[in-house]
Automatic annotation (TrEMBL):
Binds 2 manganese ions per subunit. Its cofactor is Mn(2+). Keywords: Arginine metabolism, Hydrolase, Manganese, Metal-binding. PROSITE patterns: ARGINASE_2. Belongs to the arginase family. The gene is rocF. Pathway: Nitrogen metabolism; urea cycle; L-ornithine and urea from L-arginine: step 1/1. It catalyses: L-arginine + H2O = urea + L-ornithine. Its EC number is 3.5.3.1. GO terms for molecular function: arginase activity. This is Arginase.
């Protein structure tokens, strides 16, 4: 596989210092070599430029969304990188940075594909709007924006309007979902596989159902957005919003074995590593690297 590695050192979507260090930390810990040694050709596109904004200005653009214009602008630039990568027949692999970048990845990929699916693997739904968000952090809103729900500054990233239709959205591993998010998921009838559902029905069965639904939906592209906080909080202390009751490393690997085994995945995000709040033994970075080793060894060449 030809892979375009795109770094997005973004922290303004989570408003937590350290999230911007994710791309550099993954590079220092050998992500390029991992991709290469698994037989892929990797093109490091470097990092998307992130303008500096002082924290006093976080609500300057909107009273209920932090750093709105900066997050939107970064996402627009990311979207164009993703689109151009796909045009050049490379697989865009986006490393964060916080999860607000998902809006840009999806915007870029959805411009290339006619009818795209998104698999959002996350302890959270990230389908808040400024009206339902408990935090004002835009990393809790990108998936809503991609479905054309929320503020125009976010729903009109890269091009105006809807990027992915709700029927093509799959949320896996959710266990910290806000009430407004549950309401939207109901209203849009989203394919939401919460951790409760996974535990009740079994991960294999849930993955099988997702695969079958995607195959039956005749989509021409599938984007995976992987938030590392879907893993259990004990495995990822170095992420901004860890949640107990998550997947083990083995389960995380099973998800990719199944999904990448289908050969329908066309782009992917890997987000929310915050090396600054990792523990002494760098457990989060190590677990990220272990996941990445698995991802690139499973991805077909
Ligand atoms: N990408 C993430 N880690 N998102 C966490 C979102 C947390 C919470 N639901 C919020 O809207 O603020
Ligand atoms: Mn997320
Ligand atoms: Mn999350």
């Amino acid at each position: 596989m030809d892979i375009n590695l795109i770094g997005v050192p973004l922290k303004y979507g989570c408003d937590r210092d350290g999230a911007q260090l994710g791309p550099a930390t993954l590079r220092e810990n050998g992500i390029i070599d991992i991709i290469k040694k698994n037989g892929h050709d990797v093109h490091d596109m470097g990092d998307i430029y992130i303008p500096y904004v002082v924290s006093e200005d976080k609500y300057k653009d909107h009273p209920k969304m932090k750093y709105l214009n900066t997050v939107a602008e970064v996402n627009s630039n990311l979207a164009n990188n993703v689109y151009c990568s796909l045009k050049g027949q490379s697989f865009p692999f986006i490393i964060g940075g916080d999860h607000a970048l998902g809006a840009g990845s999806i915007a870029g990929a959805s411009k290339f594909f006619k009818n795209m699916a998104v698999i959002w693997i996350d302890a959270h739904g990230d389908i808040n709007t400024y009206e339902t968000s408990p935090s004002g952090n835009i990393h809790g809103m990108p998936l809503a924006a991609s479905m054309n729900v929320g503020h125009p500054a976010l729903t009109n990233i890269y091009y105006d309007g809807i990027k992915v239709i709700p029927q093509n959205v799959y949320i896996l591993g959710g266990r910290d979902i806000d009430s407004g998010e549950f309401a939207l998921a109901d209203e849009l009838n989203l394919n939401m596989y919460t951790m409760d559902i996974v535990r009740e029905r079994g991960l294999d069965n849930v993955l099988e159902e997702i695969v079958e639904k995607i195959k039956a939906s005749n989509v021409d592209g599938v984007h995976i957005s992987f938030d590392i906080d879907v893993l259990d909080s004990s495995l990822v202390p170095g992420t901004g919003t860890p949640v107990a009751g998550g997947f083990s490393i083995e389960e995380g690997k099973e998800i990719f074995t199944t999904l990448l085994g289908e050969k329908f995945i066309t782009s992917m995000d890997f987000v929310e590593l915050n090396p600054k709040i990792d523990n002494e033994d760098k457990r989060t970075t190590k677990n990220c690297i272990e996941m990445l080793e698995h991802i690139f060894s499973t991805m077909h060449n």
